[in-house]
Amino acid sequence: MSISLTKGQKVDLTKTNPGLTKVVIGLGWDTNKYSGGKDFDLDASAFCVNASGKVGSESDFIFYNNTKNANSSIVHTGDNRTGDGDGDDEQINVDLSAVPADTDKIAFCITIHDAQARSQNFGQVSNAFVRIINESTGAELIRFDLGEDFSIETGVVVGELYRNNGEWKFSAIGSGYKDGLAGLARDYGLQTS
To answer: What does the pLDDT look like over 99-121, one tens digit per residue?
Structure first.
């Protein structure tokens, strides 16, 4: 049975699901009626951060142009440029048992590609969600629906998987960034040009 979270809630993942090692992080969204004449392309990404809350290197930022971390324990399955259809728009596979020990937390984000140039923001996005699926059974374990809390933001940290006393937990974050991917990259310690 899936657990539905609200913003700020935290829940055990591996403690309540003994033997769970491989999960799929599914992210989805719809765009509202939009008449800007440009495509609306949202992207899922993951930042693997250490104890100081920063990425160790560029390979710890997983997205459509860097689809896996150094040991392939976190893999982005591909870019969906339209968001059309039901279900997950993009997925990231995580082998919890193989995530490097220096990764304390994996932050999952959704950003709008070229948002500023296209005059797009999360006020034009609806039904955004993140869910965690047991890879071996296909069962949805956790779901967090973001709601309509955003207007000018172009990037959102939707949730985080993090280590706690040898177990993995999930936190529903729902924190928006008006400067999108650049702001996320800066806050997680990546240099942006």
So the answer is: 999 999 999 999 988 888 888 88
Q: Say which residues have a Cβ less than 8 Å from residue 138's Cβ, sequence separation at least 6.
A: none
Strands 155-164 and 61-62: unpaired
Q: Which long-range contacts (CB under 8 A, 24 or more apart) does 74-77 make?
A: 74/46, 74/48, 74/99, 74/106, 76/44, 76/45, 76/46
Amino acid at 65: N
Model-wide pTM > 0.85: yes
d(CA 38, CA 88): 22
In angstroms, the Cα distances linking 35 to 45, 92, 118, 157 are: 26, 30, 11, 26
